[in-house]
Amino acid sequence: MIGAALDAAAARLAAASTSPRLDAELLLADLLGAGRGSLLARSERALSTDEAARFAALIGRRAAGEPVAYLLGRREFWTLTLEVNPSVLVPRPETELLVELSLERLRGEPAPTVLDLGTGSGAVGLAIAHGCPASRVDLVDASAAATAVAERNRQRLALANARTLCGHWYDPVSGARYTVIVANPPYLAANDPQLDGLELRHEPRAALVAGPTGLEAIEAIIARARAHLAPGGALILEHGATQGSATRLLFESAGLERLSTRRDLAGLERATLGRQPG
After folding, report:
1. Of 197, 194, 201, whose CA–CA distance to 17 is shortest?
2. For position 159, which CATH number holds?
């Protein structure tokens, strides 16, 4: 029965997930091609042998820490549904702050340009392209596999004002200048205990770990930002909750102005913004 299967699955996931019942419902609804809301109404419906076996396999993978988004092959972000797989990070709700800050900066600009560095699935850049149709957005990632995911998302969302480029940070856009440069770069240190968590073990390490201090990618982006920002353009970076002060110092040392750090919904410092003089 669907109800009994969900109860058993939620119990099995209790030690591996903060939302075991929700995870179980999402996985079973997807397997059955039904909405979550219909599961309760069909709780007495028996699962076939094949359905029960496939559901058990999914729950086993989830219990081992595999993110629900990878099991479903998609993730909701901003107003978009994005393809995700183990070659890209699972987009987090706190990263939507980058989209909010970028769209604030772009408001009123007649033909703004945006560079999304380390785009992964394309979440941030595509959300900006969708929210600001007048913009032109370049999505850059050093991983060919990640760039392919971003391109599939771009095509499926029919966002003709965005393009994907594969390369290391600014290398694919030499000479270009942008109204906004935005990035959610790797910002964990190599010895960060978070890396031992079940879910992070399944996500691409190169998208999580910056180096010994955790600031290496942030430093690299800031060091070359002024050469790629238009006058008055903004650099907007996500960083770790304890990295706000260090990030602001790097912005200041690079000559960026009007610095500010915004907190996420949990009250943690999450994104820092600086402006190009002029």
Report:
1. 197
2. 3.40.50.150
Q: What amino acid occupies position 202? A: H
Are 252 and 234 within 8 A, CB to CB? no
Residue closest to 223 by CA, chosen among 258, 253, 180:
253
More confident: 254 or 44: 254
CA distance 258 to 255: 10
pLDDT tens-digit readout, 183-231? 999 999 999 998 888 778 899 999 999 999 999 999 999 999 999 999 9
| Nearest of 226, 94, 115, 133 to residue 181 by alpha carbon | 115
In the structure, what pLDDT confidence band is assigned to residue 38 with cuts at 50, 70 and 90?
Answer: confident
Does residue 115 sit in the same domain as residue 171? Answer: yes
Using alpha carbons only, give the angle 193, 199, 203 rounded to the nearest 5 degrees: 95
- C-alpha distances out from residue 24 to 52, 91, 209, Å: 13, 20, 30
Give the DSSP letter string of 49-108.
HHHHHHHHHHHHHHHTT--HHHHHTEEEETTEEEE--TTSPPPPGGGHHHHHHHHHHHTT
pLDDT at residue number 83 = 98
Phi and psi angles of residue 182, each rounded to the nearest 5 degrees, phi first: -130, 145
Mean pLDDT of 68-96: 97
Residue range of the domain that includes 21: 2-64
